[in-house]
Design a protein that fits this description.
- This protein is 57% helix and 11% strand.
- It is an alpha/beta fold and 337 residues long.
- α2 packs antiparallel against α3 and α8 packs across α10.
- The longest helix has 32 residues.
- Bound molecules: adenosine-5'-diphosphate, magnesium ion and zinc ion.
């Protein structure tokens, strides 16, 4: 991998990290304003901690030990008091810390265990995003389970319109639960893959992003690609002469990355080579128990007409089919604005 890419990624991380730290300081100061007793106790704690550090260079060994013990006791007492205050004002210690995306490496991208330093999974994911130009996945800050809003789905059932008894709201709550379970069982051999069907604007890509973020935070890697681009990339690779190691690695990832998300299946232009490749990907991944989320605007009937039996039987047999219903959220959002 090109050194320049590492540098670029690290630079972006640094500024994002700094932003989170700055935000935490602002938030903390605001909390201090509302609760001066908390600021007061933090000041005392800092003072004692500083004294403990300074004490190392003062006086003879015995007095130093005694003083150190005393100060440790004092520190414990203060921390206890702080806990009580936090409990009373309903603030956790986490609320006072920066809200880093990756709790494993605090967004540094690097983990140190003993003498061994290695790249954190989130850093590997950054490289994947870069390699696959996963611009969509960069929206993970906006589209995740925390920002997921069921309010866009109507609670009024309409069997004539939607074809099922449930209301869009009931329906999406079930799909959300299925998706959360899917994330939980990402490595399980018994859990199925997900097939999202339904018209445009019903939140299929949004929910795929929620899943991507959740899975990445669990320490796994994700490749997201729309079907047309994925197919083009694969054919380009297949028909190129000199394949670099990087290109090979990129191709192999499609088959062995922990989670592959194929968005907008059915919007690719048809040709037999592509169908063979698509079958190959789905089949290989199923055999190796590597999970997939596939989204499509097509109905099951359309899928039947478009793809052959081999692909269809695998989709039907190994995927939980989630049918999105409701009204175009994009239009709803526009109206609100
Ligand atoms: N659960 C949700 N909460 C908030 N916004 C959503 C939700 N689902 C979708 N959206 C928004 O609605 C729009 C359409 O969603 P999208 O996922 O692109 O639909 P689809 O992929 O089904 O065409 C996007 O702007 C998206 O951010
Ligand atoms: Mg979409
Ligand atoms: Zn990390």
């Amino acid at each position: 991998m090109d050194n320049q890419i590492y540098k670029e990624i690290l630079k972006k991380r640094d500024s994002k990290r700094q932003k989170k730290i700055d935000e935490a300081i602002i938030k903390k100061n605001k909390i201090y304003q509302d609760y001066p007793e908390l600021e007061n106790i933090d000041k005392q704690i800092n003072m004692v901690a500083l004294n403990i550090a300074r004490n190392i260079v003062s006086s003879d060994e015995i007095t130093r030990q005694i003083e150190k013990e005393n100060m440790k006791l004092k520190l414990d007492k203060l921390e206890n008091e702080k806990n009580k205050i936090l409990k009373k004002i309903n603030i956790t210690r986490q609320d006072l810390e920066p809200d880093f995306d990756c709790k494993i490496c605090n967004d540094t991208g690097i983990i140190t265990e003993g003498k061994i330093t290695s790249f954190c999974n989130c850093f590997k994911q950054d490289i994947l995003n870069y390699t696959y130009k996963q611009s969509n996945i960069l929206k993970l800050d906006e589209e995740n389970f925390k920002t997921f809003d069921s309010g866009y789905y109507s609670n009024k059932p309409n069997k004539e319109k939607y074809g099922i008894e449930k209301s869009p709201l009931e329906n999406i709550e079930i799909i959300k639960k299925i998706s959360l379970d899917f994330c939980k069982n990402i490595k399980s051999e018994n859990s199925k893959n997900l097939l999202f069907t339904g018209n445009t604007g019903l939140g299929k890509t949004f929910l795929s992003n929620c899943i991507a973020r959740e899975v990445i935070q669990k320490g796994f890697n994700v490749v997201y690609q729309t079907s047309p681009i994925l197919m083009d990339q694969i054919l380009e690779y297949k028909f190129s002469y000199d394949k670099t190691d990087e290109q090979k690695e990129k191709y192999n990832k499609i088959f062995n990355v922990d989670l592959l998300i194929i968005d907008d299946l059915g919007t690719e232009t048809m040709n037999n080579n592509k169908f063979t490749e698509l079958f190959n990907i789905i089949n290989t991944r199923l055999l190796n128990n590597k999970k997939m989320v596939i989204s499509t605007n097509l109905t099951l009937n359309d899928l039947y007409n478009r793809y052959d039996e081999r692909i269809l039987s695998r989709l039907i047999g190994n995927f939980t089919i989630c049918k999105f219903i409701g009204d175009d959220i994009r239009l709803k959002k526009k109206k609100i604005k």
